[in-house]
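Worked Example 4.2. Consider the chain below.
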Amino acid sequence: MRYRELGRSGLSVSEIGYGAWGIGESSWVGATRDESVRALHRAVDLGVNLIDTARGYGESERIVGQVVRERTGDEVLVATKVPPKNQVWPAADGTDPADAFPGDHIRASLETSLAASGLDHFDVLQFHVWNDEWLGRGDWLETVAALKQEGKIRLFGVSVNDHSPQSAVALVRSGVVDTVQVIYNVFDQSPAAELLPACAEHGVGVIVRVALDEGGLTGRITADSTFPEGDFRNRYFRDDRPAQVERRVAAIVADLGIEPDAIAEYALRFVLSHPAVSTVIPGMRSVRNVERNTALSDGQALTTEQLAVLARHGWPRDFYS
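Applying the procedure from the previous section yields the following structure tokens:
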């Protein structure tokens, strides 16, 4: 496993982190507690030292906390998220920060997360949505500073609104945030235009989520794909979206001249090719996926020609809507 600096924090994080939404036994159907625990332990065995979870991920914080407490000899960093008090995703323009992230809500959510996980602190506390209109308003920043002073959190970050990297550029430039978590993948390359350069300039760590487009960039989504009842992918890949994804992936595979099963590898390497990226956190619900993804932290970079091919396959859209 290779490691990168998490912005100016002084912390080093594994290039491949662990996205723990899928093990929360809520929006993703099919995870089992035993396999999730095995997968987390295997990830740590293989050098993963950053796990990303959230208050809104069902049982995820509880499962992650159990594993981290069991790894007494390993330093495993845990990031979690505070949901907006008004439960509005994404953060709408005109929203008062006192409605989304008042200080008492931030503190109460953190205390609930600490109790669920059994941990005494989180290494990164992130707001689960963000709007640059909140800069200089409300008591959220004062509360974050107090929580750092109390040792309950080490770093403060935000999870940038889906497919809206521009919504956090001013925050990055303000100097008050330590990390941003953002969607960045072959299809959505928009963070590379402004957000990632700003993060590099201001020493803000970058945690990349949805690098595989919720499975779209694994090569396993076809026009005939179906998902279990209650699985959020029924909405994400609704109507003719699976067929659209299948065509797009086939075009990438053809242009690169690779086997279809290799698309996930190239998708993750594409993300890691950007120097501003600190870590990528694919969702991993099995030991097999952990082993396949962590093996990509081997220093083998995509060629200039391969990156140029992938740059032509941007596909701006928002399947969350």
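The radius of gyration is 19 Å. The chain has a mean pLDDT of 96. Compare this with Example 4.1 before moving on.
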